[in-house]
Amino acid sequence: MNAEHKKTVLRMIPYGIYVLTADDGKGNIAAATVNWVTQTAFAPPLVVVGVKTDSGTYQTVKTAQAFALNMLGKDQKSLAFTFFRPADVSDGKLSGQSFRKGTTGAPILVDVPGAIECRVVSIVEQGDHHIVVGEVIDAHLNRPPSGRPDNAILEMKELGESVFYGG
Ligand SMILES: Cc1cc2nc3c(=O)[nH]c(=O)nc-3n(C[C@H](O)[C@H](O)[C@H](O)COP(=O)(O)O)c2cc1C
C-alpha cells in the first residue's frame, strides 16, 4: 500500500466536530474534542466514537459507562481548540465553559447548539482507538437550527488547511 495515498484518501472522509464529555462520579471529569463519530442504528439509536486508548477521556468513559457528545456550532472553532488540551474544572466551569450535569452525569456545555447523552453498550477493542458504542438515552436541543441540522455543526475542514485527524 502507498502510505501517502492511504493518508490522502482517508482524509477525504468528512467529519463534524464534537466535545466528548464524561463524569465517572469519582472526581474524574473528561472533555475532549473528537471527530470519529457516527450514528449506526435507528432502533435503538446507537452512535459510535473512536476514543484514544491512552487518553484520560477513555478511562473516564470506561468507568462512567456513559458519555455525552456536545455538537460544536459553526461559530465555536475556538472551543474545538480549547478541548484538544486536557480539561480542567475550576470555579464551576469546564475549561472556562459553563456546563450542567446531564441525565448520565456527563457535562452538557450550555453554549453548544445541542448534545446527546449515551450509555455505553459495548466497546470494540481494536487498534490504538477503541470504538465506544453508545445508546442515545437523552438529547438536549439548546439552540434549534434554522435550516438543516447538519448545517449547524462545525466541520473539520473549517478548522484550518492543515488540521486533520485521520489518514
Ligand atoms: C483535529 C483533532 C481531532 C481529534 N479527534 C479525536 C477523536 O476522534 N478521538 C480521540 O480519542 N481523540 C481525538 N483527538 C485528540 C483529543 O482531542 C485529545 O487527545 C484530548 O483532548 C486529550 O484528552 P485527555 O486529556 O483525555 O488525554 C483529536 C485531536 C485533534 C487535534
Q: Please, what is the oligomeric state?
A: single chain
The helix tally amounts to 3
Average pLDDT, all residues: 97
Beta-strand portion reads 35-45%
What's the helix-strand series?
HEEEEHEHEEEEEE
Order of strands, widest sheet: 2-1-5-10-11-4-3
pLDDT < 50 runs, ≥5 residues: none
Bound molecules: flavin mononucleotide
Q: How does the major sheet shape up?
A: 7 strands, antiparallel
**Rg calculated over all Cα atoms:** 15 Å
Q: What is the helix content? A: 10-25%
Total strands: 11
Classify the secondary structure makeup into a structural class.
mainly beta
Describe this structure in words.
The chain is mainly beta and 167 residues long. The protein is built from three helices and eleven strands. A seven-stranded antiparallel beta sheet has the order 2-1-5-10-11-4-3. It has a four-stranded antiparallel beta sheet with strand order 6-7-8-9, with no helix packed on it. Strand 3 and strand 4 (46-52) form a beta hairpin. The chain is globular and about 45 Å long. It starts with a helix and ends in a 26-residue tail after the last strand. It binds flavin mononucleotide.
